[in-house]
Specification:
The chain has 232 residues and is α/β, with parallel strands linked by helices. It has two domains: 134 residues, Rossmann fold, CATH 3.40.50.1000; 82 residues, Four Helix Bundle (Hemerythrin (Met), subunit A) (Up-down Bundle), CATH 1.20.120.
Length: 232
């Protein structure tokens, strides 16, 4: 079993996408729901932009608006408005169209270990979500496990910026050195948390990309393994 960081934490911060659930199936499902809505309410847009084309337009908007890089909802909504305008539809339809996308985006398929692992961790530690995505804890159905959440959309900054980690620690009322951050992304989660003075654990599932764990950081393949490491 992998070694655990030196100090026992008093609280945990957790990433969401690709840590508690795989994110791309949720996004792909939401993109197809969006396309279905457009087919009914803006048929010319649906005809010109299939789901891959809608995603390509979304990526183009992101590239054109780097100042929105921490607000995925704004990027998505602008891309929908652009698709509507380009096909002669009212761009104001982007609001209800995005609502359809966003609701579907919250329907996630948890990793098998996520819910039982969260329950074990939350029974012992205060938990705080720290995410660069736009998942909503209450809608997803896990808000009762967390003290709260911070998103890059809310703050205008995201991981690996130290400020988002420090604010989570402040809200938890625990010094960074006694907070363990858990996430799947080596750069954003592990290096980001460690550089911010937190302990860091890489939740490295078997199908995730390989990488080199920084010295002094922990590793686990599932939340159940993490709970075992922490003695929950």
């Amino acid at each position: 079993m992998p070694a655990f960081p030196v100090s026992s934490p008093l609280a945990l911060t957790l990433d969401l996408d690709d840590t508690l659930w795989p994110v791309w199936p949720a996004i792909e499902r939401a993109e197809h729901q969006l396309h279905g809505w457009l087919h009914e309410h803006a048929p010319a847009a649906a005809q010109r932009f299939d789901p891959p084309a809608l995603r390509a337009l979304r990526n183009a908007v992101e590239a054109e608006h780097p100042h929105w890089r921490h607000n995925l909802s704004a990027i998505r909504k602008e891309s929908i408005a652009r698709a509507l305008a380009m096909t002669g539809h009212d761009p104001q339809l982007a609001g209800p169209a995005f609502d359809v996308f966003f609701a579907a985006r919250q329907r996630v398929d948890f990793f098998d270990d996520a819910l039982p692992g969260l329950a074990r961790l939350a029974a012992r530690f205060p938990l705080y979500a720290v995410t660069n995505g736009n998942a909503d804890l209450a809608t997803v159905g896990v808000a009762h496990h967390f003290q709260g959440s911070l998103s890059s959309r809310e703050l205008g900054i995201g991981k690996p910026d130290a400020r988002i980690f420090h604010l989570a620690c402040e809200r938890l009322g625990v010094p960074p050195a006694q907070v363990l951050h858990v996430g799947d992304d080596l750069r954003l989660d592990v290096h980001g948390a460690r550089d911010a003075g937190l302990q860091a654990l890489w939740l490295h599932r078997p199908d995730h990309a390989k990488g080199e764990l920084p010295p002094g950081c922990g590793q686990a393949a599932t939340l159940i393994e993490l709970a075992d490491l922490l003695g929950c």
